[in-house]
């Protein structure tokens, strides 16, 4: 299925009129925890407003759904209200403006906000390894053949545009050699099938579905194979919110870490949850589970937030021209490890990734 080539804001106002879909996650009452804490401990109820970066939740950030449906937020006294936006940049703007408490996004818009003065901190990750492919028709067998083609991206600087730019760079092409077509993440497959775009960046579940709908589609480039150190998904909050809600941040990252571990350990339990959340069949999610959890090991089981990979990603952004001009390259304060460190201490560290 996979063919691999080459090597590799601050916002004053945030308007939530962005084709968003809102869903409230359950968890109205505090309850005892069952892992890593005193079984008799209870927590003051806290509601967290969370922004996700795509209009339909992907497997990559389905850890939120797993934590919700399996009661991991409930047992820590959290109600997590999720809102799906169009792109990671919208989630960043929403957190900066105070419309949301925590955001999820690929790392690029978070770095660009931080290095231009936004008081954000990354506190955790969803899938932190690249779990996407560039998908084209089988008539395209080399990335060099993308010259002159219409390529589907969300917006300049968005995750899918950056991934597209990395593929182009690998064969000495640039944006000027192709035509970008603004395409929402959930419309890429239909755009490919209809021939409106000739390439798109897809998650594993989207790729499997696309190949079923149109057998002429295939993976031209697997991004993880050409960029194994590139850091992908982050959860972040404003520094002001973190100062006011340090315990809530710990509880949030603890529930996510527990969800990540369950996603590895209990395929049968999580596949129906992820299928319901993403809108894909359980058969497709089962196939995608193998890619995420076995082939790539996309989620951290412990703290994650590998600084070497974050530094590498900053370097690649600079090389690719996706780092905002004139921005500082000092990201030493970007990550606040306090919440996830305490969360893993509560749960106990286990063998495995990060």
Automatic annotation (TrEMBL):
It is found in: Periplasm. InterPro entries: SsuA/THI5. Residues 64-266 form the SsuA/THI5-like domain. SUPFAM superfamilies: Periplasmic binding protein-like II (SSF53850). Its main location: periplasm. The keyword tRNA processing does not apply. Keywords: Signal. Residues 1-24 form the signal peptide. Belongs to the bacterial solute-binding protein SsuA/TauA family. This is ABC transporter substrate-binding protein. The lineage of its organism: Bacteria, Bacillati, Actinomycetota, Actinomycetes, Micrococcales.
């Amino acid at each position: 299925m996979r063919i691999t080539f080459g090597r590799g804001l601050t916002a004053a106002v945030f308007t939530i009129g962005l084709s968003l879909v809102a869903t409230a996650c359950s968890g109205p009452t505090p309850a005892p925890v069952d892992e890593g804490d005193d079984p008799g401990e209870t927590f003051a109820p806290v509601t967290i407003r969370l922004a996700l970066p795509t209009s339909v939740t992907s497997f990559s950030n389905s850890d939120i759904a797993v934590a919700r449906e399996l009661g991991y937020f409930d047992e820590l006294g959290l109600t997590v209200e999720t809102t799906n936006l169009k792109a990671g940049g919208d989630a960043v703007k929403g957190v900066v403006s105070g419309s949301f408490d925590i955001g999820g996004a690929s790392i690029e818009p978070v770095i660009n906000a931080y290095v231009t003065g936004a008081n954000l901190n990354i506190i955790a990750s969803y899938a932190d390894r690249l779990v996407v492919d560039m998908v084209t028709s089988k008539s395209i067998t080399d990335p060099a053949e993308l010259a002159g083609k219409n390529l589907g991206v969300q917006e300049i600087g968005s995750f899918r545009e950056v991934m597209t730019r990395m593929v182009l760079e690998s064969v000495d092409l640039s944006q000027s050699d192709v035509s970008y077509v603004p395409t929402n993440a959930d419309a890429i497959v239909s755009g490919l099938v209809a021939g409106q775009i000739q390439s798109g960046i897809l998650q594993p579940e989207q790729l499997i579905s696309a190949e079923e709908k149109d057998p002429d589609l295939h993976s031209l480039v697997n991004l993880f194979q050409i960029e194994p150190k590139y850091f992908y998904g982050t959860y972040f909050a404003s520094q002001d919110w973190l100062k006011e809600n340090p315990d809530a941040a710990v509880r949030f990252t603890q529930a996510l870490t527990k969800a990540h571990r369950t996603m590895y350990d209990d395929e049968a339990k999580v596949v129906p949850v992820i299928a319901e959340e993403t809108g894909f069949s359980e058969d497709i999610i089962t196939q995608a589970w193998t890619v995420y959890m076995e082939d790539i090991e996309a989620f951290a089981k412990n703290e994650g937030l590998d600084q070497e990979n974050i530094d590498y990603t900053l370097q690649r952004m600079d090389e690719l021209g996706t780092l905002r001009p004139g921005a500082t390259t000092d990201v030493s304060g970007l990550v606040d490890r306090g919440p996830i460190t305490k969360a893993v201490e509560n749960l106990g560290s286990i063998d495995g990734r990060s």
